[in-house]
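Subject: for your reference before the review

Hello V.,

The reviewers asked for a structural picture of the protein, and I figured it would be easier to keep everything in one thread rather than splitting it across files. Below is the amino acid sequence we used in the manuscript, unchanged from the supplementary table.
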Amino acid sequence: MSTDHLLRSQAPISDAGWELLDQEAIGRLTVALGARKLIDFSGPHGWDYSATNLGRTEGLAQAPVAGVRAHRRRVLPLTEVRAPFSISRAELADNDRGAADVDLDSLDVAALEIATAENMAVFHGWTAAGISGIAESSPHPPVPRVPDFNDYPKRVAKAVATLRQSGISGPYGLALGPDDYTSVMETTEHGGYPLFDHVRKILGEGPVVWAPGVSGAVVVSLRGGDFLFESGQDLSLGYHHHDAETVHLYLEESFSFRVATPEAAIALAGE
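And here is what came back from the structure prediction:
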């Protein structure tokens, strides 16, 4: 799969420098890409892959010849997303000399930003990109939660029960926004039992994931086929330009997302 458009060969970065940047990006993105841990991922299909087939058509009012009927195939275009950042050439040179403390803060920020954008698109939609999010697509009223996180298992149990009553089988996963995730991790129930472990049991031992960009929390079925993410180019590092002191780079991906079964998820929202 060609990556020539990333122009990495034109950057004043050594092989060791690219290896460092790639490893740092992978480490940061793996943690932050919470949506991918809970949905169906297809691809990557390549940078030149432009649209997702929706398997549907729309009728055209006119055709070139009388007596001919025409339908146009419907597709969902992939959206290109880019997060720019810069790295000091001096820091890259120090890495080539064997430095173990290279400053990659700008890459870390860009990785969090683009992961947050992806999570937000998946769970809360992106109107301009034609993407409907999981939480907004769900026909189930959100389960209200209260500030006391000792009550959280009851709310998760109610969400799971709602999905089961709708014929949506498990196991189930839970995407938590940063604030909710911190509260769940820090809370110990009466008797010293960790809240995190209790929630996982309610989910059928499904994952509880940190998903920056999520508002509140969302319970989703993991049975498959309900939430479809299609990747053209998966997240990659590319080169933009450089000057005497700085190399300007970016993280980039192209993707589409669609909800096949709106009933297979339910949001937990603050009161």
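For the response letter, the relevant points are probably these. The chain has a mean pLDDT of 93. The two ends are 48 Å apart (CA to CA).

Happy to draft the paragraph if you're swamped.

O.
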